[in-house]
Amino acid sequence: MKKQIVKKKNLKINRVYSNSLRHSGRQSSGAGTTAKKFLLFLFILLLPTQLGKHFFFAFSYLSGVRVDYLAPTLYLTDILAAGLILLNLKTVFNFFKQRKVLIVLLLLSLNLPVARSLPISLYRYIKFVEVIAVFAVLKKTAISGRALRFALLLGALFEMSLSLFQFVNKQSLQGVFYFFGERPLNLSLPGIAKASLRGMEFLRPYGTFSHPNSLAGFYLLIYFFILTRFSRISTGFNRFKLVSTVLLFISSLLIFLSFSKITIVAYLLLNFVFLWKSQLKKLCRFCLFARIFVLLFISTLFLQTTSDPLSLHKRVELAKNSLTIISQRPILGVGLGNYLIAQQQFPQKFSDFLYQPVHNIFLLLIAEIGPIAFVGLLLLFFKELKILVRSYPYIFFAVLLTGFFDHYWFTLQQNFLLMGVVIAFL
C-alpha cells in the first residue's frame, strides 16, 4: 500500500515537472513575447509547405535541362526562420561560439575551395547554417506542448485534405494550393509517381511535397515524435490526449496513402517494437495482439500495390555511381550540393529517373563532404548519438531506416527543416 502511494506521488511529481518543462521551457530573454510565439507557431504550422522562388543560373542546368536541386531557392519557411533568428540573435550568436558548432562549420567548409561548383556549395552551406541556427533558437525558446501539437495538427489536416483530393481525383487541385507548393499532377504526366492494384492505376498523393516518399518520411518522423513524447499506451481512450491521437491517426493515414513501401515497412516494424515493449502487454494482451493484427492487415493491403518495377534497380545503380564518385574524390569529396554535377559523368540508363541524387543519405553526405569530414562529424557527436539512440530510439531509427533508401532528409526543404526542429525539441 505504501509503495503504491509513493508511486502515485512520484508520478504526480513527474507529471508536474514535465508540464513545467513543456510550458515554461528553457527560456531565452524575451522569448515569451507575442511576436516570437506567433512567428514560431507559424513556422511550425507551415513546415509541410514549400512555397518558394527558384533562381536558375548557368550552374543550375545539366545538359541543357534545368535542375531544381541545383537552383538556389528562397522559401517562405526560410523567411520565417530568418525572422526567428533575428529575434533571437543573441541566443544564436552564443550557440555558434560553442567549440563543437565551430568544428562542424569548419568540417563542412573544408572542401569549399575545391568544390566543382562553388556557388552551389555556398548555397548548401548556408542551408546547413540555417538549420543549425533554427536548432539553436528552438532549443532555447519556450513553446507549450499543446501549441506545438496544434500547429502540427493543422498542417497535417491540410495535407490530408489535399492528398485525399489528389488520390480520389487522380490530379492536383491547383488554384490557391499552388502557393502552398502543390505541383501540377495528373496520371498522363511523365515521371509522376503512380501505383496500381489489380489492374487499377491511381496517383500517389504528393500533398505539397516534391514526392510522395518525402511526404511519407515527414509524417513518419512526426508520428514517432508525438508517439514517444506526448502519448501513452492504455486500454482506454481517456488517457490519450485528443490532439495527439488525431495527429497520430492523420500521420498514419498519410504514410499509407503515400504508398511508400520503405516508409510503411519502417512504420510497421517500429510500431511492433513499441507496442511489444509498452505496458499494453501487461494491461491487456488481447488489445496488444489486436492492434498488431490491425497494423499488419492494413499495411499488407498497401504493400500489395505495385509502383515502379525498376525502383530497386535504379537505387542500386545510383549507389554504384556514388561509390565511384567517392573513390574519385576520396579525401574532400565533390562539394556540398555538387553530387548531381559529379554524377553527370555516368550514362543515364533510366529516362524517367534523370538527375536524382543517390537514395542514401550516408553515401550522399560522404560523396559531398568527403570521408574525413564525415568520420569527423561522427566522432564529434558520438556521445550525443548514443544518448539519442537510448532515449529516442524510434525517432532515430525512423530517420535511419528511411535514410538508407532515400535522400530527402538532406535534399528537400520540409524534411531537412523538420529533422532540425524535432532534434531541437528533444
TrEMBL record:
Q: Which UniProt keywords apply?
A: Membrane, Transmembrane, Transmembrane helix
TM segments? 38-63, 69-89, 101-116, 150-168, 213-230, 242-270, 282-303, 361-382, 394-410
What are the subcellular locations of this protein? Membrane
Establish whether keyword Transmembrane helix is in the entry. Answer: yes
Q: Where is the O-antigen ligase-related domain?
A: 247-377
- A Pfam family cross-referenced in the UniProt record is Wzy_C
Q: Please name the InterPro entries in this protein's record.
A: O-antigen_ligase-rel_domated, WaaL-like
Gene Ontology CC: membrane
Main subcellular location of this protein, as a coarse class: membrane
As for membrane topology, the entry says:
Multi-pass membrane protein
In Swiss-Prot or TrEMBL terms, this protein is called O-antigen ligase-related domain-containing protein
Native source species? Candidatus Roizmanbacteria bacterium RIFCSPHIGHO2_01_FULL_39_12c
User: What high-level taxonomic lineage is stated for the organism?
Assistant: Bacteria, Candidatus Roizmaniibacteriota
